[in-house]
Amino acid sequence: MGSDSHSHDTGSGADLIEYDIDDEPPLSEAIPLGIQHLLAMFLSTVALPLVIAGAIGLEPAETTFIVQMALLVAGISTIVQVYSVGPVGARLPIVMGTSAIFVAPLIDIGNAFGLAAIFGAVIVAAPVEIVIGYFYDDLRRFFPPLVTGTVVMLVGLTLIPTAIDYSAGGPGAETYGNLENLALAGLVFAAAIGFNQFFDGLLSISSVLIAVVLGYLAAIPLGLLDLSGVGESSWVAVPMPLEFGVAFHPSAILIAAFAYVVTSIETIGDIEGTTGTVGRTATSREMRGGLFADGFMSMFAGLFNAFPNTSFSQNVGLIGFTGVASKFVVGICGVFLVILGLIPKVAAVVAAMPNPVLGGAAIVLFGMIFSIGMRIVANRVDLTRRNLTIIAVSIVLGVGVEVRPDAIGQLPDDVQVLVGSGLLVGGVTALVLNAILPADGDTRQGPTQVEETERAD
């Protein structure tokens, strides 16, 4: 279908589109454009597995393997989302990767039950998103912007302690809080903000990735970079399913199930945002296919030792920024991810990231998640007394159980895992209060559309 006709008339006030969804730019353009998508999402899709692995105490070799699987599964999921397998896939230019929504819940599950329980919960709970896709039109009314914005804010807030821990040197590190760690994290943080705010184009889009590379270089004279694992890694490896086993715990599955509900809301917004760049609304088939891909490919991720996958909103923003909506370009990005996922040495280099470097990047990434949720609420919710009450109570309870887990220490272990998840407690609180409190004149609570969301992820 290669089309050389640029500047398509998309109507509906759409931005100028250089390549439409079904256009295929020549490879000389498509490959660099695909690499640009890779750069925009790369750090998020490897940083999140690194955070989870570090927080639950995995060994370096295990961490390297999980990062490798994250890249591989992201690539396969992207290709399925772009070109579809039967009803699975939106056939839209959507990049897939590890979901930030799951970071805090999976850390809670891993610390309580171990790594096998994480993968068990990821696999068993994934059909929740498939069901949401099937009944999409009937279910979306339960998730107005009041609820979705509050939940997105909670995702960012519950990850703040993790970002600070890594900036200080990592949980339990002997050098926790020393000046070298804080200075290195500060350098990465400052570089990420600087490139994002003072530059345009690729330098701005890839600001966090550039900051991490600078952090790697700065870590060398500080003696904080250990690349010994790279030499021990092979060049090519074949993935093995269920390498870490699988275990099933009801409370772990419930936590994961709610996280799937949240990430499906984000995916709905990303699909609408993607079709909006070419001046039209998403069809029911595209919406169902996109949510099916989230669910089925997250189940696939759990089988192959990776964490749940979802659409990456920063890549939706990149499409609007460049005017290139070609799914062929995004498919090339998926191919590059698969190639990287089959090369353990690449994963080993990533896994060697010093904790303060990861922490400095995490402050930016996780902070952006909170600000995106705040923007959803500010732009799309009337801040009446009722709505302010729902936001306040949901956030206080959600953050409270995360930062003061001893308060629920007398509860049974399985119950502790459930009510110790800030995302679950705060999210359910927002859902229930929104359903039972009488409306008081809020006018902007239309169907949920989280097109504002951009995953730091």
From TrEMBL:
Give the chief site where it resides.
membrane
Query: Per the UniProt record, which residue ranges are transmembrane?
Result: 38-58, 64-83, 113-136, 143-164, 176-195, 202-224, 244-262, 290-308, 328-350, 357-378, 415-437
Localization (cell): Cell membrane
GO cellular component labels: plasma membrane
GO MF terms here are: xanthine transmembrane transporter activity
Tell me which domain of life the UniProt entry assigns to the organism this sequence originates from.
Answer: Archaea
Keywords (alphabetical) are:
Cell membrane, Membrane, Transmembrane, Transmembrane helix, Transport
Q: Tell me, what's a Pfam family for it? A: Xan_ur_permease
What membrane topology term does the record carry? Multi-pass membrane protein
The record ties this protein, via InterPro entries, to: NCS2, UacT-like, Xan_ur_permease
Family stated for the protein in its record: Belongs to the nucleobase:cation symporter-2 (NCS2) (TC 2.A.40) family.
What is the protein name for this chain? Purine permease
